[in-house]
Structures are given as structure tokens and as C-alpha cells.
Amino acid sequence: MGGGDQPLILDDCCLEETEHLLSPVVREPQPDPLNDDIFDILTGDSPLRYIGFDQQGCHSSLVYQTPNGSRYMCPDVSSQFKPVVGKIFLSWDEVYNMYETCGEMSGFQIRVGGYKKWKGEITHRVLVCNKAGKPRGKMVDSVNPTSMSGARSSCFKVTGCKAHIRLRATKGTTNHVLYEFSENHNHELISSENMDLTRKGKHLNFDDLHFVHAMSLNRIGATVAHRLQTSLKGGHHNMRGTRNSYKNVSRDIRMFIGERDVQLVLKKLEERAKNLHKFSFEVYHSEEKWHNLMAEYALGNHIWLNEMFSIRELWVPFYFRDIPMCCLMKTTSRCESSNSVFKVTSGITNTLVQFLMCFDTAIDNQMYNQRVVDFKSKMYTVSHMDNRSDFVNHFKVSVHMLEHSYECSCMGFTRVGYLCHHIFSVFRLHQIKNIPDRYISNRWRKRSLPSRVYSISQRLSTDNSEVSVLRNEVADCLNECADHLAFNVDGLSSFNQKMKELKRELVDNFPETINLLPPHGIRNKGCGTNRRLVGPGEKAFENSKKNPRMCRSCNQLTYCKKKANVGESTSEK
């Protein structure tokens, strides 16, 4: 019994039962541990003794110890960041941001622990430390050889931490009242230098996601993109996310696209139709033709046909399961040079909308190379000379201005049907912009494009929408301000505070509807397998790692000799 009216149970303590304790001997009362000066605070009914101070970078904590040796860390932060029992919060987001800020200043992460409902309304909520809970164990019989399940070796991060806050929702409003707060942790707090390795620190923002996506359009992987971003930002300490975070971006993009693939393609085509005057597209639905056929042959009440029409989204995957689709850009029917262009930018794992973006990038690269060649042809003059600075060959170009005819002594147009560069040099000297019609072959006009297509505003891969232009202006303005205040600590601090205030005022909302669903399970022709050839030795080595199957005849994990003998006797007969 303690010194008070209520009994005291010391947690983590054991009492050894001996003959002296059972003997009727009157003992002097022991001093109450609660009244002793060595015990400072309590966790439940267990006294904690202050033993020292721990410093992890900028994060500091007070270290306490229980009578059995267990240690607890109490964050040493300013009172303005600590939760206050009885405080009223106007919304749940305000509560979460408050406790999250407290965790960042202290050195721990938080998550939602649970909630209670009454008649469909949430009445209580709990926010706990990220290390709360216990690992789930699995019992495995390692002695029994017939046990097929093995023990899985995995790490766990939970330690059963009891730090938490509890809130009570006010009925009829969005207010929450904090009625319980436990601040002691049973684990070491995270150093301020390692906060970028936490779950929140590894979360990538929009700029990082856009950077990884832009690199993927030129077939640059996540690892190389992470190294490039590290160099651009000046080191790993300025980075958000690890290499694995960058590797998961492409996976998350495909998971986000999911069934939106065709819908995103249609949206991109709609934006392209606004920028290109002569570009148009039309989505053709074949349901009207189906209904006309059913009405023509009086098959509207046919059960099997109606069931097949209800699963029409599965027609393409099943029909093209063994037949490669021939309407794709990458195919063996084209020349290898065309395929090599798309191999630089596209991959076999691209979705439809990603392939369209890679196609735009490849076309933009070709247009840029053509524009560079055209520019160089107007700026440089090539003269064929030997080491003595004497002209090696002499060519004479005859010009008839009235007839608009040109003849060169090399007879290039007569031999191959193309004007030689000697005549083009004369065109440049006489400032002739257009080639005469008599020297333009019909095959030149087969795939000709108007000049406005080569302008910047009309390129396929250029996004001139209002949203893209404004986003680029905002990014440029932000970079200019950051460069202007590069070494001004006070200016950067003030600018950062204003940006944070502006960030709090913004709310993101992206409603989107899905009208079309893409087919699943299509095998594209010419996409490749992205796998190397595996030899028989490597195959045998990989097969040896597999768990042997249990024989139902002899109940052993080996190759059954009885079945082998039966097979030999059968073959002899």
C-alpha cells in the first residue's frame, strides 16, 4: 500500500515469495516511492526516474527510467508546439497539422490510430506515434519436414509506443476537444539530420514526379534521374525521396492511370485539336450498327447474343490473344530506322497515353534536328580545298534568269534527279527563296508539310495551353526569386514564410470522370520481351532453389522411386 488512500501497483516489478514474508513478523513501514525525490513523473502507475538528457541533432529529449530498467523519451520542445489538454480545434485538419508539427519538432512520425462511431457519426479519434502497435508473429513448425510454409524473415518498425492524443468530437459541429495526451516514447527519437529518411520525408512532391516522368519520356530510368536531381539540387541533404521512391513513381503512375488510359488519351487529343487548326478526331461507337443488325434479323431477344454484348469490353483481349495487332507504330513491317527512333524514347511497359507522349517526343526531336540542319545550311559555306589552299574541283553553273533554268557542269540533276549544292550556292547568292517547279519531283511532295507546322506553337509535343503557360511562369518566377535571394538568409526566411502562408490558402480538387475503358491483356506486336536468353545451366540452378514437391505415395519431399520403377516396368512391356 502507498502513502495515499489508493493502492499503488509498481509496474515491471516482481515480488519474491519467501518464508520471511509468510512469517507473522511486524515490520516497519517502508517509505512511499511516490514521495521520494528520485521519482519525477508517472506513466500509468509506474514511477519514472530522470536519468539524463539525449540530443539527436536539433531534437532533444529527457530520458526517464522505470524500476526494471525500461527507458522512456520525453521530447523537450517549446510549449507552443505541445498539445494542450482541453483545447478546442475547429477542424480535424487543424488537429492533424498541429500534432504533425509537434512530431517534426520532436523527432517522431504520427498516424491515425482509430476512431469510434455512434449512429454513423464519428465521436472519438486517436492520433498515435508511428511506432505504436506490436508486430504480428506467425507460428511455423520447423521440425516437421512436411510443413510447406517457411518462416519469413522481415523487419518491423513498431515498438509498442504509447504516445498518443485522444480527441472528442463536438456533436453538430466540426470542432474537436483534446481530452488526453501522452508524450512519453519507448524508443529513441529520430535525429533532425535523418528526417528526410522518414515516410513523410521520402514523399515526393509534384516537381519531383514531373521530373521523373519527363526523364522517362527519353527513356532515362529512375536511378539515373535520382542522380541527376541530386546534382541539380546540390546534394542528398536537399533531396526528397530515395532511389526506391523514384523507382516507385512509374509504378504509381500506372496504378493511377489504371482504367483512365483511354480517357487521358482522349483528353490529350482534345487539347491538341484546340492548338492545331487542321487536326480533328472522332470517337466511333459500333453499338448503333449492332442494334441495327439485331433488329434486321429479329435477334433482339436472343439470350446468348445479349450476354455476349454485355461483356463486349472483353472481345478485343480474347480475339487478339494469339493474333498480334497490326495497327501500332512499332512493327516489323516498317524499316529498322523508324523502329530505332521509337526505341530511344518508348518502352515495352508504357501505357497508351505514355506511348503517345513518347511519340510526341520522338517527332519533336526529328523536327528539331531538321530545323538545326536547315539553319546550318544558311550560315555555313563549304569549299573543297587541298593543303595548298587551292581549289581541287571547278564547277560551272549556267543561269538563265528569264527561263528560270539552271545547269551545272557536274550534271547532278541529270544523273540523280536532285539539284546539286553548287546550284543551291547560286540560289543563296541571288537570294532565291523558292525552287523552280521544274526541279521539284513529285516524290518530294508525297509527305510534305506546310511551313506553319514547323513553328513552335504548332509542334505536336508543345503544350501551349493556358494552364501549362501559367505553371511555367510560376516556376520561373519562383526560381528567379530564389536565385535573387541565394545568400540572403533573412530574405529567404521571409520569402519562405510568405510561400507557406500562400500554400495554406490553396486547396486542390481534381474531379474526373471515366467514359471509356481500355481493353486488358493485349499482346502488342513488336513490343519485345525485355528479357535476355537464359542458358540451361542457369535454368537448372534456378530450379534447384525451388521447394521440392511432396510425393503422396511415400510422403517425402523427394523424387519418388516407386513411380520411377513403375514407369520402367511399363516401358519394358
TrEMBL record:
<protein>
    <recommendedName>
        <fullName>SWIM-type domain-containing protein</fullName>
    </recommendedName>
</protein>
<keyword id="KW-0862">Zinc</keyword>
<dbReference type="GO" id="GO:0008270">
    <property type="term" value="F:zinc ion binding"/>
</dbReference>
<keyword id="KW-0479">Metal-binding</keyword>
<dbReference type="Pfam" id="PF03101">
    <property type="entry name" value="FAR1"/>
</dbReference>
<dbReference type="InterPro" id="IPR007527">
    <property type="entry name" value="Znf_SWIM"/>
</dbReference>
<keyword id="KW-0863">Zinc-finger</keyword>
<dbReference type="InterPro" id="IPR004330">
    <property type="entry name" value="FAR1_DNA_bnd_dom"/>
</dbReference>
<feature type="domain" description="SWIM-type">
    <location>
        <begin position="395"/>
        <end position="431"/>
    </location>
</feature>
